[in-house]
Amino acid sequence: MTTQLHYARAGKITPEMQTVANRENVNTEWLRNEIAEGRTVIPKNCNHNFEPRGIGAGLTTKVNANLGTSEKHCHLPEELEKLKIAVKYGADSIMDLSTGGNLRVILKKILNTSPVMVGTVPIYSVATRLLAREKTIASLDPEELFNEIEFQAKAGVDFMTLHCGVTRSTVSFLHNDDRVCGIVSRGGAILKRWMAENNAENPLYEHYDRILDICEKHDVTISLGDGLRPGAGADATDRGQIAELLVLGELVDRARERGVQVMVEGPGHMPLNQIEMNMKLMKRICHDAPFYVLGPLTTDSAPGYDHIVSAIGGTVAAIHGADFLCYVTPAEHLCLPNAEDVRNGVIASRIAAHSADVVNNVNGARQRDFIMSKARRDLDWETMYRQALDPEMARMRKNDSESSEEDHCTMCGNLCAVKNDKAEVN
Length: 426
Hints:
The chain is an alpha/beta fold. It has two domains: about 35-360, Radical SAM ThiC family, central domain (TIM Barrel), CATH 3.20.20; about 365-420, no CATH class. Helices cover about 50% and strands about 10% of the residues. The strands form two sheets. An eight-stranded parallel barrel has the order 3-4-5-6-7-8-9-10, surrounded by six helices. The chain has a two-stranded antiparallel ribbon with strand order 1-2. Helix 4 links the parallel strand 3 (about 60-65) and strand 4 (about 95). The mean pLDDT is about 95.
């Protein structure tokens, strides 16, 4: 036995399960059963030491922050600072999506630095090296891709996005159902091009058992990537997206049969009224596997504010079944995020996650809001700061105001509704 899923099915409660149960305030035996059934995962590579967290129904909604260099901007200290900020403001995981510089050095540094789980997209590394050698995508050698997956597993990566559902069949559904934005997933676009130019099947699908061999050995959680996700609201819930989802459901079952932990990634851009249906459809097709969503972004028309757009969609998604939110920053669609973008993105996603947790009534979310509400009634500012999702911001705004030394705020001043409501009538 090497994976949390193997142990759970054997009735064994691991230290990782106990840690997650304590953190989430849930029964340990219940958690073990959820892992055994595949409804919850604990992404923790055997080679990576950190305090693990669980992802799944009945647990708090988790938040991921994407980091990484690019060919246009490569400065590792900046990415490490972003990592620090992301964790400080509540990220439960980070993904290294670097495409510039020495990618293996960068990954190892991030793994050694991160106190939370780390995810990657291995095909990025392979494609980046190809382009650096002035090679074409068509020349990508599947062996190099599997070697990269194995390298990252040995290095300690906890979960990997693998676009196994982008097949010749699923891509064909785009041919008779035109999209506004086509394929917006980097991994999906790379694999579509490789398949077309080589007249061959996606090796990640064709040789899926090789992936399972590697992931079982190191307890790497597979995050089945949505390479055909909609990149525009007009493309949501189209034939390509659903065709890929059907394949991902098949791959979920095959991973579970091997004892490999697996979760499924979900749509990016989607009108608000389609989110609930998509969450329920995914859970049905993929047999309640944990669902990891980017957004969803409910409008395409707010560049510079997509962290807000994403938080709106993320809240609705998490209420209806999403378990893991990938943050979106104000830089989305525009540029590489800076440190302040990372902070804003994490906070926005944390607000979305907590808002959904209040509805789903998990791990004291409602109690936290109750304590905050009571503190406001009592004009107890210190308690308000402690309960705030961003205590620093709350304290700074109050202290920088003209009423910093008073019990009320500058919005109402002496017309404070709370004070007048509580005043005794003579």
